[in-house]
C-alpha cells in the first residue's frame, strides 16, 4: 500500500451516561478494529483510529493517529471533523455504536434506596448514514452484526444497511459462541451480492484491508451498473 493511502478506522464501543457514575454500553472490546488498523499499518497505510473508551488499541506507530471518544456525539464530532478537514481514501466503520440512548440524564448519583429506577431509551441516529455526506468520495466499509437470526435474515439486514448508508461494502456476521477464528462473515458489494465469505476475525481484517488496497473492483463495477 503506498504511503499516500489514508484510512480511518472506528473501533470499540460507545457509552451513554445514565447519571454521574453509571453508563449504558455494549461488549465490544475493540479487538477487531485493532486487527484492522494493525494490518493496514503493516501494509503501509496511514491510519487514524477512532476508538471507544476502554478499547484495545495497537502499539504506537509513526503512521498511527489515535482519537479516543466516549459517546455517540463524541464519535459524530470526531468523524465529521476528520472527514471534512482532510482526504481519506477509505473509512472502515467497525465501531459498535449504541442504537439506543437514554431519554434523560439524571443529575448526581441515583441512590439505591429510592426503589425501582425506570430508564426510558430512545433510538439513536445512525451515524454511518452521515459518512458519505461528509466525504462523498470515500470508500466506505460498514458492518452488520446480528444475534440469533438465520443467514437469509442476516443478509437482508445487511442489504438494508447498504441502502441506508450508501456503503461500498458491508460485512455481515453474527455474535455467536466459540472462538473468534470460527466466526463466518459475508462480504457484500454495493449491489447486495455476497462476493466473499471469510472465517474468523483475523481473516476478515485482512480481507477488508485488501479491499481498500485494491479499491474493491467487484464493488465498484456493481455500483457503476447501478448508476447506469
Give a structural overview.
With 228 residues, the chain is of the alpha/beta class. The protein has a single domain (6-100, 122-227), classed as CoaB-like (Rossmann fold, 3-Layer(aba) Sandwich). Helix content is 31%, strand content 26%. It has 6 helices and 12 strands. Strand 11 (184-189) and strand 12 (194-199) form a beta hairpin. It starts with 5 loop residues before the first strand and ends with a helix. Residues 216-228 have low confidence and may be disordered.
What is the count of helical runs?
A: 6
Shape: globular
The CA-CA distance between the termini, in Å, is 31 Å
Order of helices and strands: EEEHEEHEEEHEHEEEHH
Q: What fraction strand?
A: 25-35%
Low-pLDDT segments, ≥5 res: 216-228
Radius of gyration: 18 Å
How are strands sequenced across the largest beta sheet?
5-4-1-6-9-10-11-12
Assign a percent range to the helix content. 25-40%
Largest sheet: 8 strands, mixed
Number of strands: 12
Query: What structural class is derived from the secondary structure elements?
Result: alpha/beta
How many domain modules? 1
CATH superfamily: CoaB-like
Give the second-level CATH assignment, the architecture.
3-Layer(aba) Sandwich
Amino acid at each position: 500500500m503506498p504511503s499516500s493511502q489514508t484510512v480511518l478506522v472506528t473501533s470499540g464501543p460507545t457509552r451513554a451516561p445514565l447519571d454521574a457514575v453509571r453508563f449504558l454500553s455494549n461488549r465490544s472490546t475493540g479487538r477487531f478494529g485493532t486487527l484492522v488498523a494493525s494490518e493496514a499499518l503493516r501494509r503501509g497505510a496511514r491510519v487514524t483510529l477512532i476508538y471507544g473508551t476502554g478499547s484495545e488499541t495497537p502499539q504506537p506507530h509513526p503512521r498511527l493517529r489515535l482519537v479516543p471518544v466516549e459517546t455517540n456525539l463524541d464519535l459524530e464530532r470526531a468523524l465529521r471533523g476528520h472527514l471534512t478537514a482532510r482526504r481519506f481514501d477509505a473509512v472502515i466503520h467497525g465501531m459498535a455504536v449504541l442504537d439506543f440512548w437514554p431519554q434523560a440524564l439524571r443529575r448526581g448519583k441515583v441512590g439505591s434506596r429510592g426503589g425501582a429506577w425506570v430508564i426510558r431509551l430512545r433510538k439513536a441516529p445512525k451515524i454511518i448514514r452521515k459518512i458519505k455526506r461528509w466525504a462523498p468520495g470515500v470508500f466506505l466499509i460498514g458492518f452488520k452484526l446480528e444475534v440469533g437470526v438465520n443467514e437469509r435474515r442476516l443478509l437482508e439486514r445487511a442489504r438494508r444497511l447498504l441502502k441506508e448508508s450508501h456503503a461500498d461494502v458491508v460485512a455481515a456476521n453474527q455474535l455467536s459462541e466459540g472462538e473468534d477464528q470460527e466466526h463466518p462473515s459475508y462480504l457484500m458489494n454495493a449491489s447486495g451480492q455476497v462476493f466473499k465469505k471469510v472465517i474468523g476475525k483475523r481473516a476478515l481484517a485482512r480481507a477488508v484491508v485488501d479491499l481498500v488496497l485494491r479499491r474493491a473492483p467487484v464493488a465498484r463495477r456493481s455500483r457503476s451498473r447501478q448508476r447506469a
